[in-house]
Amino acid sequence: MPLLLLLKLVLTVHMTRGCMRMAAPLVGGGGGGGGAAVPVTLTAAATTSTTTISTTTTCGATNGMMGAKLFLSSSVPTMSTTYGMVAPLASNCMNCSAGSENVYPDSGSPNLVASDQKAIGSFTCTNMCICATDGKCYMIKTPETSAVFYPYCSNGACVTYVIINGAADTDGYVASDGSMFTVGQQFPDSTTTTRFPVTQQNAYMQAQSTGCNGCPVQMC
């Protein structure tokens, strides 16, 4: 074969090989040639989650008895015993310089009777405030007004009811929005001397706290 023809043939073969598609190389071992493929292991980082559980202690009697709660501000004067002044039950309720929350035993009757002596006590003061369980607070209307705090349990619920005494049917306690509880609301009419039972709807405030430093009552 002529030398020129042989050189053309070699050049053609070399160019053809340079244009061939090549597969991607496998991940090989170390410096040796042609080692087996080494698998790559991916490790996920461990994740630790923390759950915080908060607990709230419910104020109540520690002897298992049911009772009605009332926070008495340290500003409250010595209460009258005209309708009774029952001792509070042992409880886990809050107590601080502002006052103390107590749990009082069930009176057992929806009707206040002075001779039964089942009330928490009664008092009045110049800047007297009573805050109800719905969050609304009421200021005393007249100096002649006083309140008897009376614990009563019914259908598994215990409430401290406010029985109002005053010189007139209009005496009582008024909220900032103008709503009020008065002496007259607690009687069927102006000539009757027997009050409604404390379960009478809308006749009696359900007290949460009381004090003599204006509204609202500062608590712990």
Automatic annotation (TrEMBL):
Keywords: Signal. Residues 1-18 form the signal peptide. This is Uncharacterized protein.
